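TICKET: design request
STATUS: open
ATTACHED STRUCTURE:
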């Protein structure tokens, strides 16, 4: 059992190398990523890594690329009927059996839904608001609190020095001045300060932190993390908190969140270090795509490629996938007599199609292939004979790659409907 932030001596791994069959269980995804590369000499070992749902939601691409193949997923979130009965029995045994809570257990699909349902009780929500008020009333203390919970939510780690640089406040001062609520919310170790519960962090972010607090904290975290990005821990913070999809989900209860995010990205691009990051411009492009500002999307994708060229060794997989998505959507909406961006379309299709054979990229490649059929149906008459022939050739390559997926990969990527969609696109071209 390898616990969070554990030190694993080389001699321990050498001992495991002598064992015929070994299983290493990691209760922390971050620790697993640090230790697993050192396990390459272990021939008969299985690795079991606990990945929290929130971590998977914002770092799926990293998980697929960092954990060694072959991967098998076991979802332990789902509540089966026996689980519900056991939970109710435990509550009964503890003397806290309540009919309303039992009904919540019966209609919940996951254990965290049961826990969060308790927080939604109005009396509990009001009490949490009251307890938080002394900390949220002070700007620097509030920033420490919000930053700590944001980083806990994405599964990152916070060094005290980093939190101090981000907030302008000594986080350990909260241990003295923040009272019991600070100790309930935050864990103060010798060299780091972190929120105690990822689930509660998610709840606070969703229900008690104002959009302006979150956006301001994200800005400070990203700007400071990009300056420390040589360390993998800060790369995680940077990659997760720049991601539009994660921020959009975080603020989803705010109807004006997109305006707030546009202001955030506009502010971030003024920082020279953030401006030099290819993935920042990719996320900016994705935000503009969600706003249907396709001109800005194209400009920012071009900027992302420009920044990538200036970063030796940078792989453009994510940019290529988004560029293909962009050009397919743009040309689907166009009404010109010819496909204006056809050269870009065929170039990106030829780059993205081979990603279907790569474990760490195929899910994104499959997803973007869903845009092919709408494009063909909308613009088939604008394609030349040569263009149609080229596209059919590329579609065949995609179909061959999708056909090679095993049963589990097809289920995980949802590739079967995509294959059927591309077959329909081929038929539409033949019949045109």
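STATUS: resolved
RESOLUTION: sequence designed for all positions
ATTACHED SEQUENCE:
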């Amino acid at each position: 059992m390898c616990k969070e932030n554990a030190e694993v001596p080389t001699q321990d791994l050498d001992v495991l190398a002598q064992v015929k069959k070994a299983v290493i269980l990691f209760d922390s995804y971050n620790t697993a990523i640090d230790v697993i590369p050192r396990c390459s000499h272990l021939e008969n070992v299985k690795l079991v890594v606990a990945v929290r749902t929130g971590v998977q939601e914002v770092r799926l691409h990293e998980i697929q690329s960092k954990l060694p193949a072959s991967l098998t997923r076991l979802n332990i979130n789902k509540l089966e009927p026996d689980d519900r009965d056991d939970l109710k029995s435990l509550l009964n045994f503890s003397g806290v059996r309540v009919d309303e809570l039992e009904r919540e257990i019966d209609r919940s699909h996951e254990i965290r839904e049961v826990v969060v349902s308790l927080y939604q009780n109005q009396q509990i929500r009001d009490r949490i608001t009251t307890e938080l008020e002394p900390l949220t009333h002070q700007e620097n203390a509030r920033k420490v609190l919000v930053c700590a919970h944001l980083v806990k939510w994405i599964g990152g780690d916070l060094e005290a020095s980093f939190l101090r640089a981000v907030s302008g406040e000594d986080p350990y001062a909260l241990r003295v001045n923040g009272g019991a609520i600070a100790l309930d919310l935050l864990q103060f170790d010798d060299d780091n300060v972190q929120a105690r519960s990822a689930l509660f962090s998610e709840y606070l972010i969703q229900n008690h932190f104002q959009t302006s607090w979150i956006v301001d904290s994200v800005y400070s975290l990203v700007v400071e993390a990009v300056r420390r990005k040589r360390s993998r821990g800060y790369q995680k913070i940077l990659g997760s908190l720049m991601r539009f999809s994660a921020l959009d989900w975080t603020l989803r209860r705010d109807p004006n969140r997109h305006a707030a995010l546009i202001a955030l990205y506009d502010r971030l691009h003024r920082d020279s270090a953030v401006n030099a990051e290819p993935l920042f411009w990719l996320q900016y492009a994705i935000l503009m795509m969600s706003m249907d500002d396709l001109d800005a999307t194209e400009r920012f994708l071009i900027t992302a490629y420009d920044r990538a060229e200036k970063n030796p060794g940078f792989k453009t997989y994510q940019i290529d996938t988004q560029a293909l998505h962009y050009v397919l959507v743009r040309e689907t909406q166009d009404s010109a007599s010819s496909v204006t961006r056809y050269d870009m379309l065929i170039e990106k299709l030829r780059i993205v199609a081979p990603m279907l054979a790569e474990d760490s990229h195929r899910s994104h490649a499959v997803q973007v292939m869903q845009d092919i059929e709408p494009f063909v149906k909308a613009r088939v008459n604008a394609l030349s004979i040569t263009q149609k022939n080229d596209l059919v050739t590329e579609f065949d390559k995609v179909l061959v790659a999708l056909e090679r997926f095993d049963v589990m990969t097809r289920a995980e990527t949802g590739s079967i409907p995509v294959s059927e969609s591309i077959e329909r696109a081929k038929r539409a071209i033949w019949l045109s």
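CLOSING REMARK: Strands lie at 22-26, 45-49, 186-188, 193-195. Residues 121-241 form one domain.
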